[in-house]
Amino acid sequence: MLRRRPMVWFAAAWLSSGSVVSAQTAPDQVDNIKQVFAKLGTCWRPPPPSQANPSIEITVIVSFRRDGTILGHPKITYESEQATDNDRLIYRIAVMETLQRCTPMPFTEAMAGAVAGRPFAVKFHNRRPPPQPMEKRAWQLQRIL
C-alpha cells in the first residue's frame, strides 16, 4: 500500500500539469473522411457560367501524405459527356486550384496515419442551377384601378 501512494501522487501531478492530450480536436483540423470532403467543398470555386457549361461534373482521384500535401499527381477519372474541350480545360483548372487552396490538409495525427497514401475519389460539380429565363406573365399582373 505504501508503494502505490507515490504512484498516485505522480499520476495526479501528471494529470494536473496539462500534459494529457485533449480528446477534442482544433476546429480547423480534419479528423474524419466526411470532414475531408467538406473541406474540399469549401475550397471549390466552380467556373462562372459565362466561361463554361454550369452542369459539368468532374471526378478526380487524389491521395495525401501524412503532412496533408498531395501525394503524386491527381488523376481525372470522369468528365461529363456533354463537356466541350473548353469546358474540360476550365473545369480541370478549377479542380487543380481547389486542391492548391486546400493543401496542405490539416489532418489530426490519427487521421494522418489513416489516410496517408489512400486514394480519394472526389466529385466536383456546380451545385448552382443554371439561370432560368425570365417569363413575362401579363395575365398575372394585378392592376389597381
- Largest sheet, if any? 3 strands, antiparallel
Number of strands: 3
First CA to last CA: what distance?
A: 98 Å
Order of SSEs: HHEEHHE
Spans of at least 5 consecutive residues with low confidence: 1-23
Number of helical runs?
Answer: 4
Provide the spatial order of strands within the biggest beta sheet: 2-1-3
Question: What does the overall shape look like?
Answer: extended
Residues in β-strands, percent: 15-25%
Q: What is the residue-mean pLDDT, rounded to a whole number?
A: 79
Top keywords for this entry?
disordered N terminus; single chain; 145 residues; 3-stranded antiparallel β-sheet; 3 strands
Write structural notes for this entry.
- The chain is α+β, with helices and mostly antiparallel strands and 145 residues long.
- It has a domain of 90 residues.
- Helix content is 34%, strand content 17%.
- It is built from four helices and three strands; from the N terminus they run H-H-E-E-H-H-E.
- Strands 2-1-3 form a three-stranded antiparallel beta sheet, covered by helices on one side.
- It is extended, with a radius of gyration of 25 Å.
- The N terminus is likely disordered.
Topology:
Blueprint: H1 4-16, H2 33-43, E1 57-64, E2 70-79, H3 85-102, H4 109-115, E3 119-125
Antiparallel strand pairs: 1-2, 1-3
